[in-house]
Amino acid sequence: MLPIWIATVAWGLGSILWAELVRDLYHAFAHVWQPLYRLHVWHHRVFRPNLTPASEEIYQQAHWRNDVPEALVMLGFGLLWWLGAYLFLPSYHWVAGIGCLYTLCFLGSAIARGSGVPGADRLTDLTHQPGPFATPPSQWFVNRPYHWRHHFDNQNAYFCGTFTFIDKLMGTALSLKGKTVAVTGASGTLGRSLLLHLHEAGAKVIALTSGNEAVALTLESETLEVNTVTWQIGQENDLAALFEKVDILILNHGMNVNGDRTPEAIATSYQVNAFSAWRLMELFFTTVRTNQDIARKEVWVNTSEAESNPAFSPLYELTKRTLGDLVTLRRLDAPCIVRKLILGPFKSNLNPIGVMSADWVAKQIVKQAKADNRNIIVTINPLTFITFPIKELLNSVYFKLFSRPGIKVSQPPETNHSLP
Questions:
Q1: Cα separation values, 106 from 41, 101, 123, Å
Q2: Residue 160 has what pLDDT?
Q3: In the β-sheet with 375-378, what is the strand arrangement from edge to edge?
Q4: 128 pLDDT above the threshold of 80
Q5: How many C-beta atoms surround the C-beta of residue 387 within 10 A?
Q6: CA 201 – CA 16 distance, rounded (Å)
Q7: Catalytically annotated residues
Q8: For residue 408, what pLDDT is reported?
Q9: What's the rounded Cα separation, in Å, for the pair 207 and 216?
Q10: Burial of 113 (C-beta count, 10 Å sphere; 0-12/13-18/19+)
Q11: What is the average per-residue pLDDT within 30-36?
């Protein structure tokens, strides 16, 4: 009996997922095939950046020209799914038709909106409702901030309508094109590689470094001078004005005192590896004010594999775990997306015996970010793919149950952060 129910549920859910797959592929295809785009472009003509319609006439025409044809294509492919079940597994053909009923709801609501039925837009067009965004873009389901990015961030990305799977698969769940991305630790091995791959993805990069020399990238036979900003630990607030113009902040700076355990080494390690990154993250959060900020701004934090595995450098491990726990705690209420970079041993000045190349690691980071991975794991250690998700889940549940969001402040607390 159990296998029959499993098969029944599988055919029913499969028919719904099939309808969503057709919907998303139709949408993506409409951006590359001109005859379809001439219909789909009405959908992009409708909304202002605050998601209010430009006019009622254009709003209705957009549904007749885009949403109704889209639903009809979904229905056609849904009937093919049903026909396949009818021919090969006739016992399940009735449940395979659930996807058609699901699609008929889309078709009916599109017709209602196109006909100007009062209240149809508020009841059925949920991703286009105006008003302030309550949360950042969702990871697995399309919410208003996620779909807003398709209209006003990059129309050649964020194609999904309900589930984000196709965008993840195609690498269109995050567009870096035109975004201003600032990277700390930019003069280091990984920092330079990140700047290079972000630039190749179309981002406008800014190098944040404690050094005095400008950061330059080598592109084939050319040299690219990167906009370089100098800052120092304990002077994070000096970057406040810059952060207003930054879309993505990547916190990548750090240090490794190896086996040193003196009081000075402890203080320095925590200031550089944990508290400086926390202060910069909090400072960046204060720049997230508008719907556009919520939809576009992000923080990526390099907490390293040491967050969940031994690093054979006690202070590096302790400080990275502290940073990782702070990020887990704060992203429960963060006003924008916060990603963790869980990186294994790559060759750098901090780890000259690393086994991965920094260039390859940076390439994987950018690739996973485009797939909207919130925890980006790049390592040769298979255990990390098991230990980190378990650790992250348990910590997140613990923090959620036994803590609560505090009163919001406009700036992180001012303290004396001078190093010993």
A1: 19, 9, 12
A2: 97
A3: 227-230, 204-209, 180-184, 248-251, 298-302, 337-343, 375-378
A4: yes
A5: 16
A6: 34
A7: 316
A8: 55
A9: 9
A10: buried
A11: 94
Q: Please, what sign has the CA dihedral across residues 377, 381, 385, 389?
A: negative
Nearest-5° Cα angle at 128, 65 to 284: 135
Neighbours of 13 (CB within 10 A): 13
CB 145 within 8 A of CB 91: no
Cα separation, 118 vs 112, whole angstroms: 9
pLDDT digits (tens, 9 = 90+) for 199-243: 999 999 999 999 888 999 888 878 889 999 999 999 999 999 999
Tokens 């993805």 belong to residue: 201
Using alpha carbons only, what angle is made at residue 138 by residues 134 and 143, rounded to the nearest 5 degrees? 65
Output the CA–CA distances (angstroms, integers) from residue 317 to 255, 314, 346, in the order listed.
Answer: 11, 5, 16
pLDDT tens digits for 254-276?
998 888 999 999 999 999 999 99
What amino acid is encoded at 207 in this protein?
A: A
